Amino acid sequence: MNYSEKGSKLYLFSIVLVAVIGGLLFGYDTAVISGAEGGLQSFFEGAADFDYTDVLHGLTSSSALIGCIIGSALSGLFANRLGRKRALACAGVMFFLSALGSYRPEFLFFDYGTSSKSLLVAFNLYRILGGVGVGLASAICPMYIAEVAPSNMRGTLVSWNQFAIIFGQLVVYFVSYLIVQWAKATSPDFAAWTVSTGWRLMFVSEAVPAGLFTVLILLVPETPRYLALSGNDDKALYVLSKINGLAKAKEILNDIKNTVEVKTERLFTYGWLVIFIGCMLSVFQQIVGINAVLYYAPRIFDSVGAGDSMQQTVIMGVVNITFTLVAVFTVERLGRKPLLITGSLGMALGALCFAACNAFNLPPMMQVLSIMVYSASFMFSWGPICWVLISEIFPNTIRGAAVAIAVAFQWIFNFIVSASFVPMYNMEITPGDGFGHTFAYALYGVIGIIAAIFVWRLVPETKGKTLEEMNKLWSKK
């Protein structure tokens, strides 16, 4: 093989760019429901053979998360058996098929446009298939980036994956907004169009980036750490030399080989604490309630009377992108812990202010600003930094299995939060009192304070450490 004497940042950035398209699809697939869920609810409320309740709608809006749990739980198996690259290709195929199936769930078996209990099951199965792809991508994209990135750039490059997730959400918000505006201008009966066609177009729009990702991921190399684990040292050295230069590549490969000599280590070889911290990072990222905002943003803005709800959602997407960039450009300078603690307290402030606005009937703009503060605080902290830590905190020899468990916990609690939000948000003690609006965000605010304490007391700082040094870090615990 022709090893490269000098590394190339352009080569590194090009393969990371392909990997982060998986993050974009992750964001696109999970947020597409925010624009589509209103029309989807009206469509299934028209079914003659069952009653489509709020609880059923919450489950349908969250059904992709069942697939996310499955996909993330299987991600370690996929990543270790197929490799990081081929596992991501499988995820791309699932995204593509899910987009087409969610657009036309009637395919082969049902009459087009006639809602029924059986069609609801078919729709949810397609969403679950896409969720399996999201679960795989959510675990393996950060793992792929972490395993190709030099240690001094790893936090920044993994943070770009979160940027891609938020960018994917912004893209689908914008696409949904354009679809709605086009329909208002061209459809004589916009309300009927929303129920019959609007939600379908929003789902099928994902097929374009899904197809692109599936093709491009086949063109990038396998990660050098997986190649070394598989005994392909020459290929591992080749990839490392193209990124770092030959001299540094030999040094890195030697470190990798020193940590993979005992590659059959069991999950708890380094104790229970590292697994507990990894899982709790995932749990807190979800129970602070962010996906209740991301999935139901138009509904929330409608409920507070904040004007054009889709326009407000697009503005929130821009705010999210901006504050994700804060993390991208500061994670290697400020470290992981300071960003997590600051973000937790910012989320607590935003959520508690939103609850107070509801309780005391403050102007809608105050509620919108509170949601923006809450969301922005997540975007420079728990959004990207949780993924950075999960991708790097585990020792090489248990990373595949440990990441799979941690990410599975993330999707389990994502599902719990998302499925429970609509019933909780609509709770009333007396008719029209808005109790649920206040209670939901007061709860998320308290959890934000607990999250800050958890990070302060238990999470180690990993800034500047190589992946191989994680073995030493946890061996000392």
Short description:
This protein is mainly alpha-helical and 477 residues long.
Describe the structure.
The chain is an all-alpha fold and 477 residues long. Helix content is 78%, strand content 0%. The protein is built from 20 helices and no strands. The protein has helices spanning 9-45, 54-61, 63-81, 84-103, 117-148, 154-186, 190-204, 207-217, 224-229, 233-244, 246-260, 273-287, 290-303, 309-334, 336-359, 364-379, 382-392, 399-425, 435-458, 469-475. Helix 6 packs antiparallel against helix 7 (190-204). The chain is globular and about 70 Å long. The relative contact order is 0.15. The model has no long low-confidence stretch (mean pLDDT 81).
List the quaternary state of the chains: single chain
Shape: globular
Helix content: over 70%
Tally of helical runs:
20
Mean pLDDT across the residues is: 81
Using only C-alpha atoms, the radius of gyration works out to 22 Å
Beta strand %: under 5%
User: For the terminal residues, how far apart are their CA atoms?
Assistant: 41 Å
How many extended strands? 0
- The ordered string of helix (H) and strand (E) elements is HHHHHHHHHHHHHHHHHHHH
Main sheet record: none
Task: Note the topology.
Blueprint: H1 9-45, H2 54-61, H3 63-81, H4 84-103, H5 117-148, H6 154-186, H7 190-204, H8 207-217, H9 224-229, H10 233-244, H11 246-260, H12 273-287, H13 290-303, H14 309-334, H15 336-359, H16 364-379, H17 382-392, H18 399-425, H19 435-458, H20 469-475
